[in-house]
Amino acid sequence: MTLLRLSPRALSRSRFALSPMAETLGAMRLLANPCLDPWMAAWHERHAPAFRARVGADRFTAGLARLLTTSGWLPDFVTLPPPGGMRTTMAKELEVARRFSDAEIRAQLELSEQHAEVPHGLDWLAGTDFAARCAQLMSVVWRDHVLPDWPRRRALLEREVTYRAGLVAVHGWSKALGSMNRRSEWVDDDAIRFSNRPLADRVVGAEGMLFVPVSLSRGTWLCEAPPAAFALVYPARGVAVESAGPAPDRAGALERLIGAVRARILLELSRPATTTELATLLEISLGTTGGHIAILRDAGLIEGTRVGRRVVYRRTDDGDRLAGAP
């Protein structure tokens, strides 16, 4: 068992961040395999053939893509803590990734190969300028396969952060994030078990830990940069809930019962959100959204919790039952 240990100062300065690089890496792992996530099914069907054709175009790209999508040990140059918090850009992450030397990249890929599901060797790792070639693959996958879907994904991730930040304010980090997946969980209030491998524990620096949600229904990995910067990538809450959703006939019945906009709001609140987030998502005015929220709240279907200057709305038990949530 390997732990991430946080001092009280590190815990107090921990925060959320977004990472286009992590989203791109997750997308690659989805596109390289059959899609098991209903929320991503339509996107996967559109993009998987082009992705597989691209990564098979030359030996280097094919070998790198295979390793990144099958190994249980992800190399450092694609798993760096995002440098810009919630405003991190892919360009900035690629800038950092390009700083790795050929020797560093080879050493990291050798570790990844040792933990691959089926080792194939590194005969494809020939030539020089590995950092630029690796960055090129990540850049192309981001541009062609993730960026067109980024507004939808970013909206989900921002709502995840809003929800979790509210829980942190009330309950603290350990209860707010709880068990992130079957391999990662909080141990007491000052340590995170992130691996079952018997590796040395890590100590998070005074600047704190970054928690990075991605729009996947499963999978967690650690990002690390010397001397003591860490980020933990984890699946955003609500992806699986949205994937399931109510059956189409139930959704139509709900619209007829309470109106199309109020039904949409109730369904969207499978993940808590603010009035502004809902208005942006539904592309209606803030005032109109507020009016519908007031009706749903008065009916006992949703409730609001103040988090700083924001009010975060979530469904009540009655709202869950009406929306057909499991």
UniProtKB/TrEMBL annotation:
Alphabetical list of CDD domains matching this protein: HTH_ARSR
Record-annotated HTH arsR-type domain positions: 252-325
Pfam families according to UniProt: HTH_20
Sample GO molecular function, one term: DNA-binding transcription factor activity
Keywords associated with the record: DNA-binding, Transcription, Transcription regulation
SMART domains: HTH_ARSR
Name the record gives this protein: Transcriptional regulator, ArsR family
Lineage: Bacteria, Bacillati, Actinomycetota, Actinomycetes, Catenulisporales
